Structures are given as structure tokens and as C-alpha cells.
Amino acid sequence: MNTERSAVRDGDENGHDSGLPLTRWQKFRLVVKVVELRLRFVALMAATGLVFAYWDTLRSYYEKYTRPPGEVAVASAEHEFFCPMHPSVVQAEPGNCPICGMPLSRRKKGETPTLPEGALSRVQLAPFRVVQAGIRTVEPASEPFSESLTTVGTVNFDERRLARISSRLKGMSRVESLAVNFTGVPVKAGDVLAEVYSPELYQTIRELLLARDRARELAALPAGIDGAPRSPLGRGEDLDRLAEEKLVLWGITRAQIDEILREGKANPRMRIVAPISGVVVRKNVVEGQYVAEGEPLFEIADLSHVWILAQVFEDRVGLVKVGQPVEAAVEAYPGEVFRGQVAFRDPALNPTTRTMAVRYDVENADGRLQPGMFATVTLRMPIGETPAFRARMAAASRDVHRDHAAGPAVELTAAQQEKCPVTKAKLGSMGAPIPVQVASRKVWVCCDSCTRKLKAQPDRFLTGLEPRPAGEILSIPESAVIDTGDRKVVYVETEPGVFEGRQVVLGSRNGDRYPVLEGISAGDRVAAAGAFLIDAESRLNQGSGPAQAAPPATSGTTSKPHFH
Questions:
Q1: Which residue of 103, 264, 299, 362 sits 20 to 30 Å from the alpha carbon of 331, by its own alpha carbon?
Q2: Helix, strand, coil abundance in the chain, percent, nearest 5
Q3: Is residue 370 located within the same domain as residue 248?
Q4: 449-453 LR contacts (CB < 8 Å, sep 24+)
């Protein structure tokens, strides 16, 4: 009986249904227990949220009360400690950077962080933000790169293969007949073009025949006879020679003179023959017309070889030189390219159009290129030969080739190397340069943290120290360039999630890539996608030193950036 009563009492206390109705007191206790459980859960959630919200404050209090007494004097309310490589790491006490292990530097609170030389800004993004922003990095490509120039041109006659036939007969001559009576007729050298009548010609031919007859008579006489008749001008051979020279000066060929002497009779008509093979491009006479001495009759052009004249604007003149490959396309033959080399560049600009004429020769044996056609002319020059590249890179190229004359494993001094291959910072800007022996060569780095990275990935960082093959230049995608108006900036990933803004000097765009003349090195990884988002983050984060705060650099010089 006692056991049953004890079980009923336990069932009532544990809230189980014992089959008996609950009393008012039991109902009240049950409600209190339910409310108590709910309040415990709410209190636990509130405490957890407060801990997350005030974690930094709690951590600061914890470090304050657990800090060793010896470090209290080092910390100051006016100073703070930061990592030069990771500006987001800022502490009130000295120590090492938790990311790279580099000793923290000291600065006044509110002071702008000092960035490595050449860096305009620095942004650190969490991995999930890099993924969300779609940021993608690539290495600059090293390839033969050329700057192209496309301009308009026209097909012209080769002036060296133009012939103008003029009347060389003394006085007035009459055109008796025309063998070529319209423009465009193809002729060969020696073909008859026209016949002209001239009294002076008739008289000169008569003199030639008489001189020949006289020479024959004098040749038949015995030599040394004192009574032999002589001409006041000399013997008959001299008269014959003088008459022939007169005809030659009038444009009569040797074959025509031989024909006159063979026939033995004077003809007042002279045949005008073509001196070269080609096409008659101009006819200035008609039958029956009188022409004076020196008046042009015909013009003949040899179209087996033509010129293409292109017009190059003043700012692009430096991209043209004699012997440079060039190609042209005309609308009459789509898809076909006519190649050649620059043969001549005009020594003076056209003051009206501010252009320079550039000529190159094209073989035209089939005659498809006709003078007067418009052509699209394209000239290409390797970037290494452009004036801008030569002016900026001549000194650097001399130093690199001199330093690497002994082979790729040559050891450079810190002054010759100039920059750290890991951070790209100037050696000496973070303390004394540190030598590192990697791949049988000595390389200089800026700090101890760079030593581990260099040894872990030597191929990546040593690439920038090797000379590029001749004719090759670094190039980056167009999407990696942020054009602020007065400068061009790219963002280089120096550490995972850490991006530095660097000013670069670029050549003219070729397709979807820019050649890089100055600013980055081989092995750097630039943000090819998401660069605008990184730039926006650098402007929002005042501690990163926004890129627009740097003053514009003058052309051809590199100045140390300033920050507000």
C-alpha cells in the first residue's frame, strides 16, 4: 500500500499522468517549469550573441589583464603597431604579424600606412569575398608583340617606270597618222605610236644621204693625191657622222637611220616609237595637229610594278621606318593581301593634312592593281623597336644584358637587382637586404618572410629576374587596366587575397591586350577580372591608400607616390 502511494507521488512530481486529475498546485508548477525552460534557451541565445558582438572588447579586456608587466611600458595611447605587408593587421602592442610573421612596425594612431615603393594602394579581401566578386588573376604573358598602324592609301604609278614621248624635231611638225588613237592601249618597246611630217627632217635626211655619197666618192680616190677635192668641214666620213648625230638628237633610233641609209631616199615622215613596254595613259595629239619642239605627245606607264602611297598622321610617324613589312588590301579583291616593304618615307609633312606620305613597292605582273584604287594599309612594328619603348627601356636593357652576360645563373648585387622578387618593393625600404641562396644562385629579398616564400616557389619569383628573349614583351588583358584619366592602374596579388594597386605605362592596345612598358614584372599576378571591384574597395577603405590620391606622374619619369 505504501509502495503504491509512493509511485503515485513520484508520477505526480515528474509530471506524468497517473490517471488521477491534477490539482491546482500541480498545474501551477507545470506552467512554471515550461516557462523556466523557455527562459533558459532565450538567455543562452542572448549570451551567445553578446559574446560575438563584443568579442573584440572582451579580447581587449582579457589581453589587458593578462599582459606581462614588462610590455606595459612599450605600448602607448598615441601609437599602434601594424604590418607593412598587411595593413589590416593593427595591434596596440608590439609583436609579429599573424599572417606573414613579419615584425610589426610602429606608427602614430591615425597616420596613413606607408606602402611599398611603387604601390598606390593595398586591399585585403577575405577568400569568400574574392569568390563572390569573381576576381580572377593571371600572369602577364611574355610574347613577341607588335604595334600596328592602319591607314588609308592609294595605288599610284611607279614614277621610275613612266615615259613621256615629246616632239624633238626642230620647228613645227604635223601629225600625219596615229597608230595609237585612244588612251589605255597596251604597247611594247619599239611599237610605232605615230608618224609626223617635218621639212627640217627631210632636209637633214637629204644631207645624210649626200654625205654618205660624198664619203664613198672620197674613199674611191687614191690616198695622198694633192689634187683630191676636200670639203671645208673635213672628209666625207665626218659629214656622214655629223648628219647621223643630228638625227639621233631628234629622237630617231639607230635602226631607223640604218633603214634610211639602206633605202637611199629621203622621207619627210618620221615614226614615233615606244621607248618602253606598258600602257598608254595619256594621248595629247590628234591627226593633223601641228606640234612644236618639246611638246608632249604620249605618256606610257609600266604597270607590272606599282606604288602604294599611304598617309600617316603626325603622332604615328615614329612607327614607320624604311624596310618595315607592310601589307595592303583593296576592296576589289576581298580577303587578298598585297605585301611589301616600306621603300620611302616623305621627308616633310603635308601642312594641310598633317600627314606624311609613305611608299612601298608592289609587284603587279597580272595588272590587277590599277592606279587610283583605294587601299587599306597596315604597318606593324615590334614594341621593342618603338620610340617609347626604346626611350624607357634602353638603360634597363643594357643593365640586364650586361648582368646576364655570364649566363642565367649570374649573381647580382643588391644595387643591381634593385627590387625584391617577392614583394616587388625596393631593396632597403624594409631594412637591410637579405641574401638567399636559391637554385645555385644568390638572390636578395627585403625581409625574412620573403625568404620562405622564395624557397617555396622559386620558379614563380625568379622568373622576373631572367632576361626576356629578344623581341618579347610583357602584355596584360584589357580588363586588368583601370584607366583613371591621368594614369593607368593594375592590381597585383602579392599574397592570397592581398592586392596592390600599381601605376603602369602601357603601349597602344593590340586586340584585347596591352603591352606593358613599365610597372610590373614577369611572375606577377594581376587581377584580370574584378579589378573594378578591387578599385572600389580601395576607395572605400581609407586605410588602403586609394589609387586616385597619388599625384600624376610626368611622362617618362617615375615618382614616389604621396597619400592623403
A1: 299
A2: 30, 30, 40
A3: no
A4: 449/85, 449/97, 449/100, 449/101, 449/102, 450/420, 450/422, 450/423, 453/422
* 203, 270: one domain: yes
Single out the residue of 168, 363, 184, 388 nearest to residue 270, CA to CA: 168
Domain with 510 in it: what CATH number? 2.40.420.20
Could you tell me if 477 and 450 lie in one domain? no
CA 76 – CA 17 distance, rounded (Å): 68
pLDDT tens figures, 340-355: 889 999 989 999 999 9
Q: Are strands 105-108 and 79-82 parallel, antiparallel or unpaired?
A: antiparallel
Distances (CA, A) of 42 to 28, 38, 251, 321: 21, 6, 121, 82
- Do residues 94 and 104 make contact, with C-beta atoms less than 8 angstroms apart? yes
Name the more confident of 12 and 196: 196
- Which residues fall within 8 angstroms of residue 408, CB to CB, at 6 or more apart? 466
Average model confidence (pLDDT) across the chain:
76
pTM, 2 dp? 0.51
Judge whether 398 lies within some domain: no
Residue 559 has pLDDT above 50, yes or no: no
Residues 6+ apart with CB under 8 A from 7: 18
Which residue, chain included where needed, has cell 592570397? Answer: 496
% residues pLDDT > 90 (the chain): 15
Residues near 11 by beta carbon (within 8 Å), at least 6 away in sequence: 17, 18
**All three cell numbers of 395:** 638603360
Three-state secondary-structure class, residue 200: helix
CB atoms within 10 A of CB 440: 7
Query: What ranges make up the beta strands (E) of 207-252?
Result: none
Shared-domain flag, residues 191 and 284:
yes
How many Å apart are CA 403 and CA 418, to the nearest integer?
13
Range of the structural domain that residue 498 is part of: 130-144+471-549
* Dihedral sign, Cα of residue 513, residue 516, residue 519, residue 523: positive
For position 377, which CATH number holds?
2.40.30.170
Tell me how crowded residue 222 is: count the other CB atoms within 10 A of its CB.
6
Q: Give the separation between CA 87 and CA 201, rounded to whole angstroms.
A: 101
